[in-house]
Design a protein that fits this description.
Elements (H helix, E strand, L loop, with lengths): L5 E4 L3 H12 L7 E4 L3 H11 L2 E3 L2 H4 L5 E4 L6 H8 L8 E4 L6 H8 L4 E5 L9 E7 L5 H12 L2 E5 L5 H10 L1 H18 L4 H21 L4 H7 L6 H11 L2 H23 L2
Parallel strand pairs: 1-2, 1-4, 2-3, 4-5, 5-6, 7-8
Antiparallel strand pairs: 6-7
Helix pairs in contact: 4-5, 7-12, 8-9
Length: 272
C-alpha cells in the first residue's frame, strides 16, 4: 500500500478506525482522503489523522486507486449512483456496508472491480476480523490492497462465495453483541451471588478477554480448551452441564441461523 491512494466515502467511526490503522502502519496522510456531509465529522477526522477531507464525494475520488464505501446501507444506492459518472475503470471499490451485495453495487456503480467486506466493531480497537469477497474483475494486486486495508484494524479472511458473508455476519459481524450479552448475564448472576457490581463486571469482562486470548494463542480448539478446565465432578462441570441441559449449543445455532437469514433478507431489501 506504500503508493496506494485511498478515498473514504463516509467518515464515521469505522472509516476513522481504518484511517487510524493505516496511518499507524505508516501510510502517509497525503495518500488518504475522506468525504462526509457532516462538517463536524470532517473536522474531527482531519484533526485526528491529518487527512484531506471533502464535502463532495465525486471530488474526493479523483485520482485515487481505492474507494472505500463506508456509508449507511440505506444511503448506498444514492451515493453509488452519484459517484458513477466520476469513476475510472481501474478504481477498486471496497464496500464495508452490511447487507448490500455485489450485484446491487455493480448495478448502481457500473462494471467496477468490487470487494465486499463484513468487518465487526472490535475494529474500533484494532481487534477486528473481516470476511472479504472479491468479484472476478478484482486483480491480485487489488486483493492485496483490500486485505492490507482491513488488516490495518485486525485480520481479514477471504471467502470463495459471496453468500458466505451472511454466515460471517452471523458469526463475527453480530458476534460481539453475543459476548456482551454473556458478560451482562454473568455480571448479573455474580451480583445475585453476593458480589459488588463493579467487581462482578470486571471479573466477567477480564475472564472473557483472557479466554479469547487463550483461544487465539492455543494450538488446540475451543472444545479441548474447555475440557482442560473442566475437572470431573468440579464447579466448571456443574456449570457446563447446566448450560447443556438448557440446550445451549442448539440455542446458539438457532440464533446464528436467524442472523444469517436476516442478513440475506436485508441484502434483498436494500439492493432494490
Amino acid at each position: 500500500m506504500s503508493d496506494t491512494r485511498i478515498a473514504f466515502i463516509g467518515a464515521g467511526n469505522m472509516a476513522a478506525s481504518l484511517i487510524g490503522g493505516l496511518r499507524a502502519k505508516g501510510l502517509d496522510a497525503a495518500q488518504i482522503r475522506a468525504s462526509d456531509p457532516g462538517a463536524d465529522t470532517r473536522a474531527r477526522v482531519s484533526a485526528d489523522h491529518g487527512v484531506e477531507t471533502f464535502a463532495d464525494n465525486a471530488e474526493a475520488i479523483q485520482g485515487v486507486d481505492v474507494i472505500v464505501l463506508a456509508v449507511k446501507p440505506q444511503a448506498m444506492k444514492t451515493v453509488c449512483e452519484s459517484l458513477r459518472p466520476s469513476l475510472q475503470p481501474h478504481q477498486l471499490v471496497v464496500s464495508i456496508a452490511a447487507g448490500i451485495n455485489c450485484a446491487s453495487l455493480n448495478n448502481w456503480l457500473g462494471a467496477q472491480p468490487i470487494v465486499r467486506c463484513m468487518p465487526n466493531t472490535p475494529a474500533l480497537v484494532s481487534q477486528g476480523v473481516s470476511g472479504l469477497y472479491a468479484t472476478a474483475e478484482v486483480s491480485a494486486e487489488q486483493r492485496d490492497q483490500a486485505q492490507e486495508l482491513l488488516c490495518a484494524v485486525g485480520i481479514a479472511l477471504w471467502l470463495e462465495q459471496e453468500q458466505q458473508l451472511d454466515a460471517v455476519t452471523a458469526v463475527s459481524g453480530s458476534g460481539p453483541a453475543y459476548f456482551f450479552l454473556l458478560i451482562e448475564a454473568m455480571t448479573a448472576a455474580g451480583v445475585k451471588l453476593g458480589l459488588p457490581r463493579d467487581v462482578a463486571e470486571q471479573l466477567a469482562e477480564r475472564t472473557a478477554l483472557g479466554a479469547a486470548h487463550m483461544a487465539v494463542a492455543s494450538d488446540v480448539d475451543a472444545a479441548e480448551l474447555r475440557r482442560r478446565v473442566t475437572s470431573p465432578g468440579g464447579t466448571t462441570q456443574a456449570a457446563i452441564e447446566s448450560f447443556q441441559a438448557g440446550g445451549f449449543e442448539a440455542l446458539v445455532e438457532t440464533a446464528l441461523t436467524a442472523a444469517a437469514h436476516r442478513s440475506a433478507e436485508l441484502a434483498e431489501q436494500l439492493g432494490k
